[in-house]
């Protein structure tokens, strides 16, 4: 006697989640972007210098059912960033999204009185690290048909913003060159200007400001992700 029952259909393997790298993920918009992406099913690799803040971020992501890999690294360390890119290539083979929020916001000061150490750190973080990461991550983004989300903050030329404004403007000039160069060959480079948000960085720039009208970082993260 033969069994005429139809055998069950094989269960298709669950696709691996897409990988999003968030540099500067420990607080503010970076942390909000990491949480929002994880909530949408992305595996988030969160990079920042502050281990404790990353662990708190991971707790929130896991509590919401998301997945994250923590990378407590300094984006201004080129060897660490090379190791990061190598680890992504070895484990995932490609990268689908890079959100770059790492920034050094130097204290406001007149141009003639800028602190040399703050200026050097601004250049290292805002410009040099961005250039290093573009070189390391472009092949991974291209392999993953990926997107880079770069955030503009046009304060160049405003009084007392010499260090931050000049290095942020230089960063965006570099990013716009990269964007123009990759239109046909990828990766896709998206430049967005976030709304004014109630972050610690803004509080240092504008102490005493009424924060009630400012955007919430989580709402702003969801708005930016929707553009992608």
UniProtKB/TrEMBL annotation:
Pfam families: adh_short. InterPro entries: NAD(P)-bd_dom_sf, SDR_fam. One of its GO terms (cellular component) is membrane. Keywords: Oxidoreductase. Transmembrane segments: none annotated. The keyword Oxidoreductase applies. This is Short-chain dehydrogenase/reductase family oxidoreductase. It comes from Frigidibacter mobilis.
């Amino acid at each position: 006697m033969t069994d005429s029952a139809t055998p069950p259909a094989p269960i298709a393997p669950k696709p691996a989640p897409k990988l999003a790298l968030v540099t500067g993920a420990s607080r503010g918009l970076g942390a909000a972007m990491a949480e929002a992406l994880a909530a949408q099913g992305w595996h988030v690799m969160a990079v920042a210098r502050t281990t404790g803040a990353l662990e708190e971020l991971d707790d929130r992501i896991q509590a919401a059912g998301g997945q994250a890999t923590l990378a407590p690294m300094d984006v201004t360390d080129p060897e660490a960033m090379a190791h990061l890119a190598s680890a992504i290539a070895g484990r995932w083979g490609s990268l689908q999204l890079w959100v770059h929020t790492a920034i050094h916001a130097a204290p406001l000061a007149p141009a003639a009185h800028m602190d040399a150490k703050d200026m050097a750190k601004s250049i290292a973080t805002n410009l040099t690290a961005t250039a290093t990461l573009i070189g390391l991550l472009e092949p991974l983004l291209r392999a993953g048909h990926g997107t880079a989300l770069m955030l503009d903050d046009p304060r160049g030329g405003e009084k007392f913003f010499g260090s931050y404004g000049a290095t942020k403007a230089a960063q965006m000039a570099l990013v716009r060159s990269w964007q123009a160069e990759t239109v046909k060959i990828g990766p896709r480079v998206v430049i967005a200007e976030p709304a004014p948000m109630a972050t610690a960085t803004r509080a240092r720039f504008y102490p005493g400001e009424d924060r009630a009208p400012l955007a919430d970082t989580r709402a702003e993260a969801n708005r930016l992700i929707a553009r992608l």
